[in-house]
Each structure stands twice: as structure tokens, then as C-alpha cells.
Design brief:
This protein is α+β, with helices and mostly antiparallel strands and 237 residues long. Helix content is 35%, strand content 21%.
Length: 237
């Protein structure tokens, strides 16, 4: 079936000398993986390597056979040309990190229009704003809404957050954050992308990142912590 859709590139893996296997989160069909032959050849002008950088938003025409095998692009073009993401070292590092997070977190091989729209809007906001220190933390928190494990806010006034159960409790258990960690977590829950970016000190952001990664690991089967984590920490150190 010939499909026309927007897609967000989650990963690209070099195959042999000249080809790529590209994993995308598509607007029309959820997760899809594509085989790109001769990706490193100048003959394929419509399949430039630049199209397959982490979290690039592309518009594609593709033949979807839906047989569990690799699909093939027919046409590709940029849906949005990023203004700063590819040239700002901090932003590009954040994008590499988030692409790994999403690569391991999104499992759905079916349409998820709301998640796609959220990610597209978030990435375009990130590209056009300068104060973005907490972007990766806010995005990771918001994505849990679409993956089904956003924290239960019913008892938000309780002093401890049980990271396994995903709710706030009056007593600390083996799975609870400390009272200080819970306080930081609550502050993060209230943040929007355009909130004051200086609300956290560097060490607090590091702690929140660890909490979020643990949260993902507990609630997503097979989730792996990104290889780029140490690079991200270095950028924010």
C-alpha cells in the first residue's frame, strides 16, 4: 500500500557499506522500519543522509507491505528544516539523547496521532527557543501520558512518590523517592516548555534525570538507558 505521511526519525543504522536501516515513528502507522539502499551514494538525491539525523521530521511516500519486514521509501523530503538543532551542540546532544529514549520507549506499530502531534510540536518549539535547559526532562515526563504511565496526581499533597506504583503516598516505602526527590518531582510535573528554565540547579536536573530513567525502566519492558547519557551529563556539567 502506498502511504503518504509525516515521520520522525528515531534511529538509523548503517548496513554493509552503503545502506541504512531507518526506524521512524510515522503519523499514519506508528513505528516503521525502512531499508534505504545506497544511502551513501550521490545517485540517490532524494535519500540524503541528512534526512535521517535523530528526530528529523520528514514527509515520505512509502510502500507499506505490513508483513513485518523492512519497508521501502519511494520519496522523501524534509517536513521541517531545523533552524538551530543541528548547529547548536547542546541542542543536538539533547536530541540524540531523546531519540534513544523514544527508540526504546515507543513500541506501538499502530497509529498514535496524539503522540506524534505532541512530539512534532515539542521539537519545533525546541528548535526556535533559546532557554531550553529543562526541555528533555519535561518531554520525558509528558511522553508518559501517551505511553500509559503518567503519575497519578490524585494524592499530590502526600510527601512521597512511589515510583513503581506511580502514585503519591503518605509513607515512604522501598519503592518511594525521598521527600526531597518527591519535591523536585512535583516541581517538574508543574513545568511547561516555556516555564522559567532556571528553576533547577544542575545537580537537581541530574537527579531528576536519574529518577525519570528509573521510572521508564520500571514501566516499560525492555527499556534501555541511552548510550548517550554520559555525553548529556558532560554537556550539562
Amino acid at each position: 500500500m502506498l502511504i503518504k505521511t509525516k515521520a520522525i526519525v528515531l534511529s538509523s543504522l548503517k548496513y554493509q557499506e552503503k545502506s541504512l536501516i531507518v526506524k521512524c515513528f510515522t503519523e499514519s502507522d506508528g513505528l516503521k522500519s525502512y531499508f534505504v539502499p545506497s544511502a551513501y551514494s550521490n545517485k540517490k538525491v532524494n535519500q540524503k543522509i541528512a534526512y535521517f539525523q535523530p528526530l528529523t521530521i520528514i514527509e515520505i511516500e512509502a510502500n507499506h507491505k505490513n508483513k513485518g519486514t523492512l519497508e521501502h521509501f519511494k520519496e522523501i523530503r524534509l517536513a521541517h528544516s531545523y533552524y538551530s538543532i543541528n548547529t547548536d551542540i547542546v541542542k543536538s546532544t539533547i536530541v540524540i539523547f531523546l531519540s534513544e529514549i523514544l527508540h526504546h520507549a515507543i513500541k506501538e506499530e499502530e497509529k498514535n496521532q496524539s503522540l506524534f502531534s505532541f512530539l512534532e510540536t515539542a521539537l519545533l518549539w525546541f528548535d526556535t527557543h533559546q532557554e531550553t535547559t529543562n526541555f528533555h526532562l519535561i518531554l520525558m515526563m509528558e511522553v508518559t501520558k501517551y505511553l500509559g504511565f503518567y503519575p497519578d496526581l490524585t494524592e499530590l499533597d502526600f510527601p512521597y512518590f512511589d515510583i513503581k506504583e506511580g502514585l503519591f503516598t503518605p509513607f515512604q516505602s522501598i519503592n518511594s523517592l525521598t521527600e526531597h526527590e518527591t519535591h523536585l518531582f512535583k516541581r517538574l510535573l508543574q513545568l511547561k516548555f516555556d516555564s522559567d528554565q532556571k528553576i533547577f540547579a544542575g545537580i537537581e536536573r541530574q537527579l531528576l534525570l536519574k529518577i525519570l530513567l528509573d521510572f521508564y525502566t520500571l514501566h516499560l519492558d525492555g527499556f534501555k538507558k541511552p548510550k548517550s547519557l554520559e555525553v548529556l551529563k558532560e554537556v550539562f556539567s
